[in-house]
Amino acid sequence: MIIPATATSIQKAKKLLEAGHVVAFPTETVYGLGANAFDQAAVAKIFTIKSRPAINPLIVHINDAAKLATVARIDRGSLCERRVNRLISLWPGPLSLVLPKQTIIPDNVTAGLNTVAVRIPAHPIALDLLSVIDFPLAAPSANLSSEVSPTSADHVWQSLGDRVELIIDGGSCLVGLESTVLAITDEVPIILRPGAITREQLEETLREKVDMFKTAAAENANKKIIHSSPGLLFKHYAPKTPISIRDTVSREDLPEKVGLISFKPIPTDKTISYERVIYLSEDENLDEIAKNLFATIRELDLLNLDLILIDVCREDGLGIAIMDRIRRACGLT
Ligand code: TXA
Ligand code: MG
Question: Burial letters for 275-310: b for 16+ Cβ neighbours within 10 Å, e otherwise?
């Protein structure tokens, strides 16, 4: 059931969560599927509902940095503590920190790892919900495993339907891409998943160099990376319709029904008759592209096309996260 976010629906969600059920709620990035992060049985329901492999760990959501110590073990005077003290200036926001976990966090939340990913979401409804309950919420994106993440309550409904008792509707997500996941326990902090908090922002805040998982992959070999973020193993963000980057498909290979996602209105090849062309932005504005990307992929996926073509955007700042999701949707990573 989808219900608008009101004081009454927040209370209803609180009751369900306290009784060990799961609830879908909006965040600034994508909708989350939340359960009591301290309750192993409740967390297990998330994995069942999403058909999520047990080896893919969840992000724990809190509403106040003062609660961080309840979920993560940060030693006094440690490098980790110094980094956290700087990074919390970016909270609430689309940044998940991978930290040593407290034993109170059940193993299924972290897929057996000794670290836990934590963030404070920058969304008034998520913060309201987190403030009325006295436990953190473990919450992955509220879609079936391997689907495109939901950026509206309707998307959650399309993906999960009655599998979730309650979907709190908070409108469209402002950011539209999942949070940046940053591991800060190693010598060099490493971005495991790029997001709206960019590498430049992190380096400026931390006043040290930050690696991208790709660079580290080259240095450390794949095994280490798979171990550090199992979520990277899976094909994500893929629609049912085949999707390819426009430049990689030649004209003569195009099937009959083709849709195009472009980033600004530019003249398209008039000799190709697209079934549908969607411009994500008037002027290649990266914030706009990120906000609309998943909704547009979902929209075209419903049209029974033979192929979706998508353009590339410039790869700096938020463009890095956008192209990461596009490559994953196209099966290129
Ligand atoms: O924006 C977001 O992060 C959204 C909203 C709901 O907060 N959540 C989200 O969760 O995208 P999910 O489950 O779809 O993605 C979680 C990612 C996965 O790639 C997972 O591998 C990584 O975070 N992760 C979680 N815990 C980790 C850990 N302990 N170590 C390394 N990576 C971890
Ligand atoms: Mg997800």
Answer: beebbbbeebebebbbbbbbbbbbebbeeebebbbb
